[in-house]
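Suppose a colleague, Dr. K., hands you the sequence of a protein chain of 214 amino acids and asks what its three-dimensional shape might be. Before reaching for any lab equipment, you can write down a predicted structure in token form. Begin with the sequence itself:
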Amino acid sequence: MARFNLSKSGERFNLSKSDGGLVNVRIGLGWQANEDPNGPNFDLDVSAFMIDSNFKIPDDGFFVFYGCDNKGKDAEGNVRPLSQDGAMLGAVDEREGSDDNAVGDTEDMILDLSKVDSRVEQIIIAVTICKYPNDDKRDRRTLALNFGMVEGCYLRIMNEKTSDEIMRYTLSENFKDEDAVEFGRLYRIGGEWEFEALGRGSQGSLPTLIDQYT
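The predicted structure, expressed as tokens, is then:
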């Protein structure tokens, strides 16, 4: 069971004061697969924007997503996107979502807060819907998808070393027109790291967020 639950946007949680000072973090995200077996798939992509005081990424290597050129391996040997400073291992791309009985997160990211570049003041965790023609099945029906159709969306933060769940934020808003949602942000304040639930939706999927933060 979650140690701490956030129920609405704007709520915050201090990571540095939990578990004796949380440094190694796993960020898990989940959502339910489309109940219609004929699809289209809910192919959602998890990304991280590591942004500076100008609310922009300092360099291209601070946008962590499935298409990153820079790669690293996690403890299990899985190849993942890797941030320029080596702090963030991005998600292994999952293209369908999880069923109701699935155990574990649909996608996750691994973050070492001690390695985050000094220019980075906050890390935005976003989820976007992959649409035609970028979806793997080239299904034009994906053009009509929005987050109002996707159920069971959540973000949780775990202690990477112990696998203990520290905090969970379940998306309660109904985004009927939006295909991109900024779930939350990790940010520095007074030498500590905190998490804020955002639940901020927008249209235009991943390109919209890229335009905003680059």
